[in-house]
Amino acid sequence: MSYVIIEADDPFFVNQTVLAGSVYEIIINGLQEGLAFFLVLAGIYFAIKIIHKRNFSTLNYVDFFSKNEVLEGIVVWGTLVLLGSLINQEDDWKYFLDNRIDTTLVYLIPVSIVTVAIQSYAEEVIFRGYLLQSFSLRIKNYYVLLFLCSAIFGILHVDYGLEAVLGVALFGAIFCIIVLERKSLAFVSGVHFINNFLVSFLLSGDEKKVIEKDFMDFDFVPIGITIVQFILLLVYIKKSTKSTYYNTEQTLCS
Questions:
Q1: pTM for this one?
Q2: pLDDT for 187-238, tens place per residue?
Q3: Cα 115 from Cα 128, distance rounded (Å)
């Protein structure tokens, strides 16, 4: 997301004509993306009801979607991401503080929250809900199941390069572990939401300075930080969760 601010003697001066059109465009794009993912959720809802003859809640693994677990995921992962960003994303923080603290946040934050919330939950329903449960009916090996689901998730990000594929695949594997441990999509939905919100809105940096990278380009620093964050997240999950591998009969059945 980006918007236009006109330079003037007053650093807080904003050309309202340019800004209005820019913010309007951002809002429309955000709502369109949110609507697209909402339609995906609606399609999955009817597929579960008509084809599998089950309640949509089976994709959440539980009948009650805990808001407290969503908030827990937001707080835990949000804290880890913000701490990690202080190590290697100083420029992104500086750009945000210097260029994005203005009245447009009143419009941009609500649109970003709604859009990212719908998008992140839809992806969890698809990958850690429907896909993971469907594969688990035929794949009984825990590690093969994790590898297959996370590999598919990672490959879908191939346009962003090898580093993104590996990072997203690892992200998917961790999410699968958490879902199987907690028997719920609530916690990972919170983690997914805050991750995408911070990366796309707060820590996106200057989009004009984005450098094109070859597919094989690999930066070990962010990957290393991410791995440490994942380890800390898993430690937290193990300490806070007492459950075993879920019974597939309680979830989606063909």
A1: 0.79
A2: 999 999 999 998 877 766 555 554 556 666 667 777 888 899 999 999 999 9
A3: 19
